Amino acid sequence: SQQGEEDPQALSIQEGENATMNCSYKTSINNLQWYRQNSGRGLVHLILIRSNEREKHSGRLRVTLDTSKKSSSLLITASRAADTASYFCATDANTGGTSYGKLTFGQGTILTVHP
Amino acid sequence: DTGVSQNPRHKITKRGQNVTFRCDPISEHNRLYWYRQTLGQGPEFLTYFQNEAQLEKSRLLSDRFSAERPKGSFSTLEIQRTEQGDSAMYLCASSPPPTTGELFFGEGSRLTVL
Lengths: 115, 114
Fold this sequence. Notes:
The complex is a heterodimer of chains A (115) and B (114).
Chain A: E1 5-7, E2 10-14, E3 19-24, E4 31-37, E5 43-50, E6 55-58, E7 61-66, E8 71-76, E9 85-92, E10 103-105, E11 109-114
Parallel strand pairs in A: 2-11
Antiparallel strand pairs in A: 1-3, 3-8, 4-5, 4-9, 6-7, 7-8, 9-10, 9-11
Chain B: E1 5-7, E2 10-13, E3 19-24, E4 31-37, E5 44-50, E6 53-57, E7 65-68, E8 75-79, E9 88-95, E10 104-105, E11 109-113
Parallel strand pairs in B: 2-11
Antiparallel strand pairs in B: 1-3, 3-8, 4-5, 4-9, 5-6, 7-8, 9-10, 9-11
């Protein structure tokens, strides 16, 4: 079963605008990750944030994590048409120690960036 | 450095037939994972290997499914007596030692059961 709920399910914006996607989850986590998937392709890892971190940046990506609310957000700034894809949050619930990669994915947000 | 390779990329089969998918992980990645993704959903964990040992199996992996990773290199996922509900994208991923938690996914094998 899916742990994460993502919001919105679909997002349509113009090039240059910012895109914000939200993810909520149910259990305690070791880390939370965001992945991107182009239609019919595999997933590409974007960013990982650990449970003791609150914010992380990578290029045009900014991720926040609020463990008290069990929620995360992904912000893509200055979006480009090439950012058009599905974006998934995934949680690693192995709080006992080292992450071993069993992830629980949300249903994803479909982002469309119009040129 | 090549990525995770999956074959075949597409497979169309009739209900009741057996199918096998192969995954070649990134070399020196000791962990290998299989996930299943149905249309409009996120991937769901199926099973995980560390080297040749299969350490965890999801209850989604019914008796008709079997995964192997002989010699801790490539892995195969076999589905016996396929059903229409098996139609999905089967994704393989790997991760290196020591793991950061990040998974490296292949392009997937899409199964269509008629």
